[in-house]
Write a structure and sequence with these properties.
Blueprint lengths: L6 H18 L2 E8 L4 E4 L1 H6 L13 H5 L4 H17 L1 E10 L5 E12 L5 E10 L1 H23 L3 E6 L4 E4 L1 H7 L3 H4 L4 H4 L3 H17 L3 E8 L5 E12 L5 E10 L1 H23 L3 E6 L4 E4 L2 H6 L5 E3 H6 L3 H16 L4 E9 L5 E12 L5 E10 L1 H23 L2 E7 L4 E3 L2 H6 L10 H7 L2 H15 L7 E8 L6 E13 L2 E11 L1 H15 L1 H57 L4 H27 L8 E3 L1 H7 L1 H8 L3 E7 L5 E4 L1 H17 L5 E12 L2 H7 L4 E10 L6 H6 L17 H11 L3 E6 L5 E10 L23 E5 L3 H13 L4 E4 L2 H10 L3 E7 L7 H11 L4 E6 L7 E2 L2 E2 L5 E3 L4 H13 L3
Parallel strand pairs: 23-25, 29-30, 29-31, 31-32, 32-35
Antiparallel strand pairs: 1-2, 1-5, 3-4, 4-5, 6-7, 6-10, 8-9, 9-10, 11-12, 11-16, 12-13, 14-15, 15-16, 17-18, 17-21, 19-20, 20-21, 22-24, 24-28, 25-26, 26-28, 27-28, 33-34
Length: 931
């Protein structure tokens, strides 16, 4: 029986083993730590490994001396590991870095054992050091490679995995996890058959894997896969054999990318291409696809069927060359403007040459396809042959023209109600029956709203019956309409029928005719039958009134014609009276007061006769006017003194001038006469004194209702009112106030031409005059003068009367007058003023004198003369002598100097009869004028 080995023998064997390990280089040092005494003994190798002086080996060291060589980052961990080993005893192992003699750190592993006594206290702690620096480097490279591999696998898109030869999963990325729906710790080591919910899908995948591993060849294929949540997707998979170092296939690696969206896009693209192909085949349009980079164009078959060109591909230039020469430049410019200007759509109509040389009208449309930065890539379009459409439109237009002629000839309007689209078609004639302008769009609401309330129920019931598939009645009704725009009530008779498609009414079409006149005639006939006697009396009264109005109109016309006929001769006669009397009074001076008084009486009578003629001309609107842009505020303000003197002290004058009154266009002198005439009339209506107000204002009559209330057409006017607080006028006087020769004054106190002159001037100035009066409340006369756009820089200035003695100049004056008396007076008057004078009785003699006397400065000519009138003479004279000054004189111009009753601004005229003072001032003004 053998005995157990003694402890000493064990220590010897351990010592032997250590020596052998040291000799082999596996152990680089040993230590023994007497824990109870805290003495540490190391060998030479360990001292060298920790960078200690070899002389310290086998001496008693402290732990801190050895630990001082440990890397600072590892000291705390080493201290914790030693403390834990001493506490629990038993085996100890820990890795850390130490600094060697060369100053470099290297990895070592300390392996030892802590011996405990019976009380569990550490008494001894021997151990060895092993150099693991190379192993750690290899492990670090391995870990780095594994980390890189894991990062690559995780970062790879789609699914990345590896399997062994039996199909068990060795590794998978996040995509693999999402596909399987389980964490890696569950699916690693298992096959697709164990993991996938779809057995057929699992079998297909494993069969593919086995084929790749058996063939040793890489394959790329599309797979349809199902996710755990029910989603289905398409994957593009690449599978390759996994080989070991000897090249033996030990498994499989694979990647898969989700191509579901790409597959869908491809499907949509194929669908679009198929639709495009079918559309190109089905349409009658010539479809073209133009590649802009090289001008290549692809056409569908319609290029041949429509235009006869047996081509499928052309160039853009070929297309351009086949456009009509008159259209080519325009089309080329338009399409390039869209392409180069960043546009997307283009369309144009032009003529395209067929294969037989004829030209077809076409409508061409195209869309530009652009790249990522907006560059034009392609243009796709369709060319529509308009030949058939144009022919049909021409035929339709002809048919519609015939229908229009027929309805217009019958004074009818047609109508078409589209019940499917809820649309209404009315021509202008039908719209007029509902008081709607021709250009206004209409809907069914206009029809419903336009029916008179008393007729709406029966009318709508008749329409419903016509549109009812069961009844299909004839729409035949008479109803009243209330004009949408004018409010006028009209009678309409309408007939129509419904058009049906199966059991549905799609349209109701018919005609309408206005029967207002017939209805009124029927009503009048019925009324006449019921009240024949009263109607006869009323008709007789109405006829009498019309006849009176006609006679009044004829009387007014006769007055105008009479005035125009006698004005020239009468004024010529007055000129031979007033002028000589004026000369006679000047020559006599104050030598014979009685004779002077007689002369003044004669001049006053002749002057009143001249004013009578002038008023007749004003009433008949035959007086020549010289209108200018006029500020009525300035004019009224300038008349204040004249009005005050004319009214007398018993009448208080008030002028109310509105701010910023508009400009008007009128003859300032005539307007002053009108206002003065109205003031004098008001004075006569205020025998006991009172108040007269002259007021200005802007007046805008904007609506038909305003125009009806004011009895003045719509527009913008400058309003002048002259109002008194006298006794007023009864209606019968107001009705005749503007009649010529009508007066309420006693015989000898008035001619009755005052208000008729006002009326004639205002109407000749395109204005309106209204009288508002009632007994006991005074009278207001309102003048509405049209507004003239623009402003007046300054009002007309009234020059102070020139009190200097009458005198002329030394310029030579040519007098042309066919009336001997007037001609003689003119010669003597001008001579009296100091002017040298030549005279002629007509145009021929005047032109001869102009040729003989180039120093003639002024042509003073009558207007109305036989053969050649004064205006024609002046035109011919000015052709020969452009610097010649011209002054016309006339008793009645007969439009020779006027345009629409208005004198040319460049014309200077003095009316007959005239005084010596009038002649002196007018001649001087004309000669002083600078052109």
């Amino acid at each position: 029986m053998s005995s157990s080995p003694s402890p000493g023998s064990h220590r010897e064997r351990d010592s032997e083993r250590v020596k052998m390990a040291l000799a082999a280089g596996a152990i680089i040092g040993t230590w023994f730590w007497d824990v109870a005494r805290d003495n540490l003994t190391v060998d030479d190798a360990l001292a060298l490994a920790h960078g200690l002086d070899p002389a310290l080996a086998r001496t008693e060291l402290r732990l801190e001396q050895v630990v001082a060589a440990v890397h600072p980052d590892d000291r705390a961990g080493l201290a914790d590991a030693i403390a834990e080993a001493v506490r629990r005893g038993g085996r100890y192992a820990h890795q850390y870095r130490t600094r060697g003699p060369d100053g470099a750190y290297r990895w070592i592993e300390a392996i030892g054992r802590v011996d405990l006594d019976a009380q569990g206290e550490a008494i001894g702690f021997p151990g060895v050091l092993i150099d693991i620096d190379e192993r750690r480097r290899i492990e670090a490279e391995r870990d780095q490679a594994q980390t890189l591999l894991r990062s690559f696998v995780e970062a790879a898109p789609g699914v990345v995995y590896a399997k062994d030869r039996q199909g068990r999963i060795l590794i998978g990325n996040r995509g693999t996890t999402d596909l399987i729906g389980l964490p890696p710790e569950v699916y690693v080591g298992r096959t697709d058959a164990e993991l996938l919910n779809d057995p057929a899908q699992a079998a297909t995948v494993m069969a593919t894997d086995e084929r790749v591993m058996a063939s040793g060849q890489t394959e790329q294929l599309e797979e349809e896969v199902s996710f755990p949540d029910g989603r289905r997707a398409y994957w593009l998979s690449t599978k390759s054999p996994l080989r070991d170092a000897d090249g033996t296939v030990v498994g499989l690696v694979g990647t898969s990318l989700d191509i579901t969206d790409r597959k869908a896009a491809e499907a949509r693209h194929l669908e679009v291409e198929e639709r495009y192909r079918l559309a190109a085949q089905a349409t009658n349009d010539a479809i073209w696809d133009w590649r802009i980079s090289d001008g290549h164009v692809i056409w569908n078959e319609a290029l041949t069927t429509l235009f006869g060109h047996p081509l499928a591909e052309t160039t853009a230039q070929w297309w351009l060359d086949h456009i009509h020469p008159d259209d080519r430049a325009r089309v080329d410019a338009d399409i390039h403007a869209v392409i180069e200007g960043g546009g997307t759509s283009w369309n144009s109509e032009y003529r395209f040459r067929r294969a037989d040389g004829s030209f077809a009208p076409v409508l061409d449309r195209g869309t530009v396809l652009r790249g990522g930065v907006g560059e034009p890539l392609r243009m796709i379009g369709a060319m529509l042959d308009l030949t058939v459409r144009n022919t049909a439109e021409a035929a339709l237009a002809k048919s519609e023209e015939r229908l229009r002629f027929a309805t217009e000839a019958g004074d009818m309007g047609f109508w078409d109600v589209d019940l499917v689209r809820d649309e209404l078609i009315w021509p202008a004639r039908t719209k007029a029956m509902f008081g709607i302008s021709p250009g206004v769009a209409v809907t069914l609401r206009d029809f419903y709203d336009g029916i008179h309330p008393d007729d709406s129920e029966a009318t709508f019931a008749a329409f419903a019956a016509a549109a009812d598939p069961a009844r299909r009645a004839l729409y035949d009704v008479e109803y009243r309409t209330v004009g949408k725009e004018d409010g006028v009530v009209r009678w309409v008779a309408a007939k129509g029928r419904g058009h049906f498609e199966g059991d549905r009414c799609v349209r109701v079409v018919g005609v309408a005719i206005e029967i207002t006149a017939r209805k009124l005639a029927d009503a009048r006939l019925q009324e006449l039958n019921e009240h024949l006697e009263s109607r006869v009396l009323e008709e007789v009264a109405e006829r009498t009134r019309v006849e009176d109005a006609l006679r009044q109109s004829q009387k007014m016309e006769a007055v105008g014609q009479l005035t125009g006929g006698i004005a020239h001769d009468f004024n010529n006669m007055l000129a031979t009276v007033i002028g000589p009397l004026d000369l006679l009074a000047m020559r006599m001076g104050d030598s014979d007061p009685r004779a002077k008084r007689y002369i003044d009486m004669a001049i006053d009578g002749a002057t009143r006769a001249a004013q009578l003629t002038q008023r007749l001309l004003a009433f008949s609107r035959q007086q020549p006017l010289q209108p200018v842009p006029l500020d009525v505020n300035h004019l009224v303000a300038g008349m204040s003194d004249l009005l005050v003197h004319s009214l007398g002290s018993s009448i208080r004058l008030e002028t109310v001038l509105a701010a910023q009154v508009w400009c008007t266009f009128a003859d300032a002198n005539q307007l002053e006469n009108v206002i003065l005439n109205l003031a004098v009339n008001a004075r006569d209506a205020l025998p006991g004194g009172g108040r007269l107000v002259v007021e200005t204002a802007n007046c805008r009559i904007a609506s038909a209702a305003d125009a009806m209330r004011a009895d003045v057409p719509t527009g913008e006017y400058v309003l002048i009112t002259v109002a008194d607080n006298g006794g007023g006028m009864p209606p019968e006087v107001i009705a005749k106030a503007f009649d010529p020769f009508f007066t309420t004054k006693k015989v000898g106190q008035g001619t009755g031409l005052g208000l008729s002159q006002v009326y004639g001037f205002v109407r000749q100035s395109a204005g309106h005059v209204k009288i508002h009066s009632s007994l006991g409340k005074g009278t207001t006369v309102a003048l509405y003068l049209p507004r003239r756009e623009g402003e007046i820089d300054a009002g007309p200035s009234t020059a102070p009367a020139d009190s200097r003695p009458l005198s002329g100049g030394r310029e030579l004056v040519l007098v042309v007058e066919d009336e001997p008396g007037v001609r003689q007076f003119s010669i003597e008057a001008l001579s009296e003023l100091g002017y040298p004078v030549l005279a002629a009785d007509g145009a021929a003699g005047a032109l001869a004198l102009l040729e003989q006397h180039p120093d003639i400065a002024l042509l003073f000519t009558d207007v109305v003369m036989p053969e050649v009138n004064g205006r024609q003479l002046a035109d011919e004279a000015l052709k020969r002598r452009p610097d010649l000054k011209v002054l016309f004189t006339t008793g009645y111009s007969r439009n020779a100097l006027e345009h629409d009753g208005v004198l040319d601004p460049a014309v200077h005229v003095i009316g007959k009869p005239f005084t010596l003072e009038d002649l002196a001032l007018r001649v001087r003004a004309v000669l002083a004028e600078v052109r």
